[in-house]
Amino acid sequence: MRRVLFLLPVYNEASGLPSLLRRIRETCEGAGIPYRVLAVDDGSRDGSQDILREEAARMPLEILRHRFNRGLAETLRDGLEWVADRASDEDVLVTMDADDTHDPAYVPAMLERIEAGCDVVVASRFRPGAEVVGVPAHRELFSRGANALLRLFLRIPGVRDYACGYRAVRVEVLRRAVFRFENELLSLRGWGFICTAELLWKLHLVGARCCEIPFVLRYDWKAGTSKMRPVRTICGYGLLALRSLGGRAERRA
Question: What is the mean pLDDT of the chain?
Fold first, then answer.
């Protein structure tokens, strides 16, 4: 039977983890979805590790840990490689932020789109019916501008939201990307949150069929402060946009 594997990159998320894990458990158990959670703790020092160990006694939860903080790209990469090594082709990976801003209640709808033939389902902030709650105006303006840049250069059919990390991915397609790109799957490691857009681009390059569902981003549920560094992230988006030009030439070859 198909399982859902949740990948949570964790860095100082003690305030949001209990609620998020409870929502995952309730959503999957309520819908009869077999699931497992992989939390990759990137050197948290706020008690996140203790919370994960406690929750592992209540739910199917695996924990990987970095002794020191290594950044989102390496954290995400380690989780993706773990899933590619251990999951079955028919399983589905769901990536989510660990700060409780992504509601797991959308997972059943995402699985329906996977069953209908999509390889990647993006929870999109830019589809009719989507909403963003509690995001400061300057952050919302930044997100829309960065997303417009990526849409202009990456041009992935079926995708409007390139930066949101809430996605469902067919494991067979993920494994294809991991094996093709190997250590270069997430090559822009020093550029912060750009790794989520780079992953979507690499999945596209191996032929993933992408689609979206609208969702409500609950930034008002976030207890901590944002870890995004705007200048570094903007530079990263620009670098990915330039690299995508070579990727399109590669697909035409």
Answer: 89
Q: Which helix (H) or strand (E) holds 187?
A: none
CA distance 52 to 55: 5
Closest CA to 41 of 64, 20, 14, 57: 64
User: What is the residue-wise DSSP string for 40-61?
Assistant: EEES--SSHHHHHHHHTTTS-E
| pLDDT tens track for 80-119 | 999 999 999 999 999 999 999 999 999 999 999 999 999 9
pTM: 0.90
Tell me the C-alpha distance between 162 and 149, whole Å.
10
Nearest partner of 111 among 2, 238, 237, 233, judged by Cα = 2
- Sequence-distant (6+) residues with CB within 8 A of 129 are 214
